[in-house]
Amino acid sequence: MDKMRLGVNIDHVAVLREARKVNDPDIIHALHVACMNGADQITIHLREDRRHIQDADAKKIIQGSSLPVNLECSINKEILDIVCDLRPHRATLVPEKREEVTTEGGLDLITHEESIAFAIEQLHDSLIPVSLFVDPTLEAMEKAKELGAEMVELHTGSFANIFAMIYSSLCYCHHSIKELELPRSTLESKLEKSLEDLKTAAAHAHSLGLEVAAGHGLNYHNVSYMMEISEIVELNIGQSIIARSVFSGLAEAVREMKRLTSR
Ligand code: PXP
Predict the structure, then answer these.
(1) Can you give the residue ranges of every domain in the chain?
(2) Does ligand 1 come within 6 angstroms of the Cβ of 236?
(3) DSSP codes, 226-253
(4) Domain topology for 5-260
(5) Of 94, 101, 182, 239, which has the fewest CB atoms closer than 10 Å, so is most exposed?
């Protein structure tokens, strides 16, 4: 049986912590829970605006993790210098905009070719393998190979959004989704096309010798579609796992506090 690696993205635990600027929930506790319960990799994103993971978190996670750490980052020079010092097991280059809520699309390898090539060279000089987070197009696969990346992570956001439009009662749907009114048959064709794009891109990347990961917006309802794409060997998933953990843990959390506050 083919093995699929699960990268658990624990940024969202730090989002909750940063909302209060305290040390609860403890990101290192989250790291250990993920490590002890079947994750194959830990994924974190050191954003330029440090809205969740802080430099000290990244350092502690990389030093304390029993699993490989995949560090997502932009191609900003200051961030790359920090990443090279931190020496994660892999760096995944992602596009980053300050105003975005989360990563909104793949890296544009054509427009930013020169700075991405420079970033890859800097990371390789520090012996850090590089993955590029890209939209599932053939051109992106070709360019990723040409630029010398070891791996691509296919952006599944578009697939996940269309899936959410069709099955909005099943899973979260971004507030900005405006196409809910589209006929179901149109949405189903769009879903098929987005899956076809992922399959074609994964097969092409694999044929070029690139390792293939996928991520963004994957959840308990749509992840099975990714299992059908044999070239994808790794999934990076955050929001849906942390969101589910609220409800798999909330009942016990309330019971425990009730016990402590009962006379
Ligand atoms: N992969 C990449 C490159 C990402 O930027 C993110 C979001 O931080 C993820 C995977 C995980 O996405 P989600 O939180 O929607 O599961």
Answers:
(1) 5-260
(2) yes
(3) HHT-TTEEEEEE-HHHHHHHHHHHHHHH
(4) TIM Barrel (3.20.20)
(5) 101
